[in-house]
Amino acid sequence: MPTPWSRRGFVKATGGAAAALGLAGAIPVTTASGTAYAADATDGETGTATAPADEFDHLRSTWRGLILGAGFSPTAEPFASKLAQLGTSAAAWRTAMSPTAGSLWPQMVWLDPEPDTDTASYTYSAQIQLTLQRLRSMAEAYAQPGTGLTGDTGYARDVVAGLRHVVTDVYHAGQAPYGNWYNWQIGGPQALLDAAIILHDHVDDELRAAITAAVGAFVPDSAVASYSGTSTGANRVDLCRTIALSGLVGANAGRLSVAAAALSPVFPYVTSGDGLYRDGSFVQHTWVPYAGSYGADLFSGLSLLFALLAGSRWEITDPARENYFDAVERAWAPFLFNGLCMDAVSGRAISRGVPPGTSAGANDDHLRGHAIIASIVALGRAASAEQNARWRALAKGWVQRAYFSAPHTDPMLGVYKLAQLQEVANDSTVKPLPEPLEHRLFPSQDRAVHRRTGWAACLSMASERIAHYEWGNGENLRGWHTGAGWLSWWGDDFGNEQYSQGFWATVDPYRLPGTTVSRKRLADGEGGQWGAERPDARWVGGTTDGTYAAVGQHLKGLSSTLEARKSWFFLDEGIVCLGAGITAADGQAVDTVVDNRRLGGDGAAALTVDGRRMPGGSGWTRTFTDPGWAHLAGHGGYVFPEGGRVTALREERTGRWSDIRTGSSTEPVTDRYLTLYVDHGTDPVDAGYAYVLLPGAGAARTASRAAGARGLLRTLVNTPEAQGVHVPSLGVTAVNFWAEGSAAGLTVSAPCSVLVRHGRGGTATVCVADPTRELTALTVTWDHRVTSVVSRPGTVRAASTGRELKLTFGSLTAEAGATQKTTVRTA
């Protein structure tokens, strides 16, 4: 198991040739397709390559515009209040500055008495970054209008003196790094370089040289020589940003060349590990879906670097950059809903709540979504006119539908992001695009997103490819079961705050919605750090026609003997959820959580079961035997087609953000919940469940669906061998086969997922996928008359029609779990 330092440690030079920069000063950048060389590269410390001074002046001016924002009125809200607050804070920080050996502010000590890579050293190195970030904010207060410090040269000299103290005392070329590598290579130097660029006219040549020498020492050109270790994905983009900015500060053309060339390995699609996948998945730390956190940073970094270098001799022209333009709608937009970014792709960032000693808003799904939308708008400046216009229309739609938390007035966003969002919101020529009605399946990150009229849902799973969860740096200590079939959902005009505010600080981590979990107690940070703990399960994924889907998970519990087969069938009105083969021997009970809704306010949302309203007081609980349906006012309905034992629980829960993230606020947070769960008992053997989630449904519609109105649903099979449904009103039959066999008129020769949907004009589509990614051959037979095959994928080696359809597939191992879609004509 890697230690924090080895996992996150400095990228070492890859040999003498790289260290000497070889090839007449060109830095080698190793990629999957070979080795490329960046022209004009120089040693990051000596910086011998030069360019005309006015070229660097122009780039520094461009960067200031990018990070400070433009086109906004400093007297209008939310800018006026935000700028005034910045000025107030900056003035107070100036007064409190007390430079001594080991700190600039007494409460932010960076001097480590025992420098190494343990938890204490992480805390000390973080203080270097926090100090530099505060100085960066102080520099912004000088440059921004309306702060009360705008253009104050005496104030600027004090900020520069603070920068000089940090560079002299700790962040200098002779200092051996300790603690977290990120503070030395990305977070700290980026803040330092931003401040130096903002205050360029007040920084003398001696300090400028010291800054560039320090950054060159901690982030040499060799840090991006090999696309490996901590120099991949979002980290690589951040490292390139650090190198590029050091080039601006030091007027070093070679550093800019290195940064521009070193971005190229980020652009190609990957088939494992960190990066962007063809199916739209984005993974960081090898095993963790991260579009909402590291991916958001990468996206922001790319948009800034593309804009900075556009039109210069370092402009990013690699054709593969188009992959990230395409990813706007393939990788990021699917996880944005009414302005929020779904937590299932935010890794340990979900634990970043309210900072200690502050009443500031939490770093929640809405803030992450707002920042991504702003980055999409910014990226449009480097895209085609058509892409830019469409992305602005998408952004305007998200902004207008964000009824719970408005992106363009979010006080947690920086001025430059707010300016971008305000400009789109106020542009009358931009017509907002509506939410698409679609299903998006991401086999390479074990995630699925479903959108129908009035609601959206997201499914989070784990497999041998994707971790149960990630914890590290003391973050996300109880995210154990976020990969155990966690099913989150929102309404178009309700429930958008469901996983925001205090949710992660107060929710029972053993009862996340949709999961099947052993009640075995787990330690904080159970399993390996950085997503190292993964289940030994291959059958995780499913198939989709783009509208409906069959998704399944061979569940294996974290540090538990629990095993189960779970399936979700995503339809128009709701999601059919099936479980079978639920078995464990931990000496503990096992639950399947139908839902766990955060009620907020007084928690008075009425629960009705089979037409009877239940008590509304906190602490109430009751177990129902064979209920037909339940309804939670203001949220939705639940149908139980096979009855079972379902327990309802109302509770008030109190927690602290510090419970799940070291160093966070210790202030208690209280919220109210209504939980519905199936108790499978202690050490169950082959237990199961079946329920239908109906987001937004009223009590009458829920009761009607439970009565079988309009042939909504027939559960055909729910066993450890196969799980499937037939929905006559939609013409859909879908089965997840855990083994070879037959069900619902479908016969398969090996485990797979199959969805058949009748279309118009006598056609049908047969969608097949191999979630295991190990089938070298597969035969699927549909017991239905078929006259001809209209189209078929290249993986189909033979197709016979007549009284039945028989599809013979070749190897599916290279398809990465992707759906293979065949269209036929039926009799």
TrEMBL record:
One GO MF term, please?
lyase activity
Q: Which residues cross the membrane?
A: none
Give every Polysaccharide lyase family 8 C-terminal domain span: 716-779
Keywords of this entry:
Lyase, Signal
Among its keywords, does the record have Ribosomal protein?
no
Which parts of the sequence belong to the Polysaccharide lyase 8 N-terminal alpha-helical domain?
63-396
Q: Which domain of life is it from?
A: Bacteria
Which SUPFAM superfamilies does the annotation name?
Chondroitin AC/alginate lyase (SSF48230), Galactose mutarotase-like (SSF74650), Hyaluronate lyase-like, C-terminal domain (SSF49863)
Identify the residues that the record assigns to the Polysaccharide lyase family 8 central domain, covering every copy: 439-697
Q: Which positions make up the signal peptide?
A: 1-38
Q: Does the keyword Lyase apply?
A: yes
Q: Name one Pfam family in it.
A: Lyase_8_C
The record's comment on protein family reads: Belongs to the polysaccharide lyase 8 family.
Name the UniProt record assigns to this protein: Lyase
The scientific name of the source species is: Streptomyces daghestanicus
